[in-house]
Write a structure and sequence with these properties.
heterodimer; A: about 325 residues; mainly alpha; MetI-like fold; B: about 300 residues; flat
């Protein structure tokens, strides 16, 4: 199994290479002159030319690419001109804020999704099952930016229960931050909850009609133990696969959610960088999110192999 | 005795005919109630898009500042008006044209390129497969919306560019689906037979392998239109999509966000239309999948 895990870890190298290269190509294709963007529209042609030389933009693309790869390998992502700070420092400040939304959202979605999925499967064909599955369908189809606006409208504008924007301040107490987290987390958790419910329901249905569960029932084991201990355990692998995708999806969803709630995370950082044509920041932030995406997917595959060793022995990857 | 046998043959044929009819994809789809519901929602949205000039006054961009922020049914405006006094119902109907066209266009762009790459990678195998699929994996590493945002920044706003941005981001997904199918299909007996009689690679790919992978593509494309509608709305919502004042559901939603306090109906109505359309395509896609690939139903 160790060998298979190692192979899976090595398999991310080509993806990482493509991600880094593609980020370079895409950011070089963004219209406009980065040097002009740094100096502003009033700068003289000579100053812009000097800045282009300083930034290495006068070099051929191949040599720019080589320098870029060396810089990335050193962990040097350049300097953001709009913040006048190193890009890596800015990203390091914002990532915890995005994680502060992503992890609780995924945790809530996982717990709610498992509860809804199991309940639906156990009560297959009843009104509860239909109701939950309709909600799950609406959940997976939900444009989360619209849901966010509607949540703001109801809970902030009309009821005034929760704050609209920002992430609060720890100096006002942890309660303030939590109050600011409620709506964005609910928003981010919607699609994963719906997805987990659907996956859990179908996995549990498959599992409870299997021979092993029938045998457990024949032995007179309590139904709740059969469902929550045995059926759920055998239904977990597909849920874990989806967990990785959803966690990665939360980073992507954060771009929209953070924009709606003005949450100072990676999403607002990228949208702001695009608005300001801050090339170094766009490049760094896009790269970090894509790398996180690749690494999360790899970790999920590894966890999947550990909990389901058949995959590795059968050479499923 | 012969007459009895003849009758039996007739009834057998009748039974077979009925069975064929029952197993016909369209008839199967008709029996799937949720798929029919999805189809109805999709047809409704297509109808309001196509007949927009007939069911509205045909002026989605006409400004009447004096009538700004009217709500439902005020002064003959079914869904009220927006911040410039433009009729919201008219803009929603014309927005349906843009949103559905972009979603369909992006799915066609992503579908054609993805199917081609998936076919080549799966059929050729070896180094071609490795190179194509590693690039696809790399592109897949970018979250869909992030890649679309970056591509829009590169391409600039406008309908064609939105179609391209979403379409390009969809290519790897189509390529993976098709490649997986090609790997199975190319080992089938009829493909072996084709190779034995020496048919060309082109004929093998496009006459024998492609038709046998197409059902997967249809299922995926239907489900993909739903996500393309959301992507278009998201891009327009972020101000990177359709150029104003052209109406799209996303741009209406963006306008609704700016006037959430004064006119919440603008955001509410456009979002409901997006949601119903996406649910429609999801139900239809699930239904088509059940019909074309019953193994997946489970």
């Amino acid at each position: 199994m160790f060998k298979t895990i190692l192979i899976r870890c090595l398999q991310i190298l080509p993806s990482l290479f493509v991600v880094v290269t593609l980020t370079f190509i895409l950011t070089r294709m963004i219209p406009g002159d980065p040097a002009r963007a740094v100096l502003g529209p009033q700068a003289s042609v000579q100053d812009v030319q000097k800045m282009r030389e300083t930034m290495g933009l006068d070099q051929p693309l191949v040599s720019q690419y080589k320098d870029y790869m060396i810089q990335i390998a050193k962990g040097d992502f350049g300097v953001s001109y709009s913040y006048n700070q190193p890009v890596l420092g800015l990203i390091a400040k914002r990532i915890p804020n995005t994680l502060l939304l992503a992890f609780p959202s995924i945790l809530i979605a996982l717990i709610a999704g498992l509860l809804i999925g199991v309940t639906s499967a156990v009560r297959q064909g009843t009104l509860v099952d239909y109701l939950f599955m309709i909600l799950a369908l609406v959940g997976v189809s939900m444009p989360i930016f619209w849901l966010g606006l509607m949540l703001v409208l109801v809970f902030s504008v009309h009821l005034g229960w929760l704050p609209v924007l920002g992430m609060g301040s720890m100096s006002s107490g942890i309660g303030d931050v939590i109050r600011h987290m409620v709506l964005p987390c609910f928003c981010l958790a919607t699609i994963p909850t719906a997805t987990f419910s659907r996956i859990t329901r179908s996995s549990i249905l498959e599992s409870i009609h299997g021979d092993s569960i029938r045998a457990l029932r024949a032995r007179g084991i309590r139904e709740s133990v059969v469902i929550w201990k045995y059926a759920l355990k055998s239904a977990l692998p597909p849920v874990i696969t989806v967990l990785g995708l959803q966690l990665a999806g939360c980073f992507a969803g954060a771009i929209l959610t953070e924009t709606i709630f003005a949450w100072p995370g990676m999403g607002t950082l990228i949208v702001g960088a695009i608005d300001n044509r801050d090339y170094a920041l766009i490049q760094g932030a896009v790269l970090v999110i894509a790398l996180a995406f690749v690494i999360i997917n790899m970790l999920v595959d590894v966890v999947y192999m550990i909990i389901n060793p058949n995959v590795s022995y059968e050479g499923g990857f | 005795m012969a007459k009895v046998l003849l009758l039996d043959q007739q009834s057998q044929e009748e039974i077979l005919r009925k069975e064929r009819k029952a197993n016909n994809a369209w008839n199967k789809l008709k029996r799937n109630k949720t798929a029919v519901l999805g189809l109805a929602a999709v047809c409704f949205m297509i109808a309001i898009a196509v007949f927009a000039p007939l069911i509205t006054d045909g002026k989605p961009n006409e400004i009447h500042p004096i009538d700004a922020y009217l709500t439902f049914f005020q002064k003959g405006h079914l869904f009220g008006t927006d911040e410039f006094g433009r009729d919201l119902f008219t803009r929603i109907c014309y927005g349906a044209r843009v949103s559905l066209l972009v979603a369909a266009g992006a799915t066609i762009v992503g579908g054609i390129a993805g199917v081609f790459l998936g076919l080549i990678a799966g059929y050729m195998g070896g180094i071609v497969d490795a190179v194509v699929m590693r690039i696809m994996d790399g592109v897949l590493a970018f979250p869909f919306i992030l890649l679309s945002i970056v591509l829009m920044t590169v391409l600039g706003s406008g309908m064609t560019n939105v179609i391209l941005a979403i379409g390009i981001a969809e290519i790897p997904r189509f390529a993976r689906v098709v490649r997986g199918q090609v790997l199975v299909v190319k080992r089938e007996e009829y493909c072996n037979a084709g190779r034995v009689i020496g048919i060309s690679h082109f004929r093998m790919l496009f006459h024998h392998i492609l038709p046998n992978t197409i059902s997967e593509v249809i299922v995926y494309a239907t489900l993909n239109i739903a996500s393309a509608i959301i992507s278009e709305s998201a891009l327009s919502f972020l101000g990177l999509g359709i150029d104003l004042p052209t109406a799209s559901w996303g741009s209406i939603l963006r306008a609704g966000r700016n006037s959430l306090n004064t006119a919440p109906h603008i955001a509410a109505v456009s979002g409901v239309f997006i949601l119903i359309t996406v649910i429609g395509f999801n139900l239809l896609g699930d239904g088509i999948r059940d019909v074309l690939d019953p193994k997946m139903k489970k």
